[in-house]
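Quick start: what a row looks like.
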Amino acid sequence: MISTPEPSLEKSRFGLLQFLFLTYVIGFIFYHAGPLCLLVVTSFFLFALMDPWVAYFKRRNLHPALPSLIGAIIAILILAAFTGLFYSVASNLLKQVQSYQAVILNHLKELQNHFQFLMIDPTTPTEKVQGASEVTNAASDSAASHSVLSAISFSHMVSGAGSVLSFLTMSLLIPLLTWFMILEKKTLSLFFSSLYGSEDQTRKVWKEITRLSQAFFVGNLILAVISSAIFLVLFLAFKLHGAFSLAIVSGVLNEIPFVGSILCAVFPALQALSQGLGAGVALSLLLLSIVIHFTVANVVTPKLLGSRVNLNATYSTIALIGWGYLWGTLGLIFAIPLTGLLKILFEYSSIPTLQALALSMSSDPEALANTRLDQMVGLDRLLRNQRPSKKPST
């Protein structure tokens, strides 16, 4: 007699196939329509950030259109302020990068001359040595003028954000799309309710998404301000030129996981070399910047963000590589919250495979299993199989 699979198992397998097909379609769209996806993703997270504020005014019997319109205007002003600050810092940094270019080329020239001096035959006349050195220096200067570093321009620095016109267009469309999402929140709620089967489950999912958005974006903004202030004090103590621009750049780069410790330390070290402060000062700035990064990452960040993002190092690294490959610099910014969003959707799913994937993504899977054991069916079955069975008493 052929046994038929349980209906719940068939439903789970069919749901998994649907998820795989949907993942392929979304990945195809993300890859081939990056600007559109960035517009939607940014608007969605801004919507999640503003939703508690809109709900507060709604409880005060105000129509959601008014607070959402005010929030959209505030978002435009914030984006405009950040845009102006970005271009101001970028222009100052461009001037400093040109001085860094000269410092790097001078050090490379000295290193090249040093190696050439070591390779010269001691019996060679001094006149030939000097002539060869002059020819080498002339060739080095000619190569430097055509080097890759000399091709650095402002357009290359902002190429990740696109042209100024497209950036301004995105700044206007993002608040507008966010406003429409707030006005049509009921439609989105119906979509999530049909996806998860109950309004109670939908409320839990949306609550986790809003917590994730607030913890990551607001928390990292506060961390960037704190880091920039610390870097500013450090750079002023070493009397670096352009300390304010360097502090902002280092504070923002400091928020990038894993590689941020190196990125935030490179620019101040190069600035010290360009001012002629010596290799000792540059090395001190390099080490102190790395210490600040790890202090903020391991002391301040856990207290401020807590475990709301709840992603382990493995999946965080994979997320940075994958989203960075798709969307460049903006992909690095959205890598962690997007992956955290996927983890939340997997965690509350009724498909055991996705629940197990959410556990593998968590930085504390045991705590997640204890809090979600009643709803994570696949995990509950697995733990029951691992528990020792009680022998019947005789």
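That is the whole record. Confidence is low (pLDDT under 50) at residues 142-162. The chain has three domains: 19-120+161-183, 208-308, 310-379.
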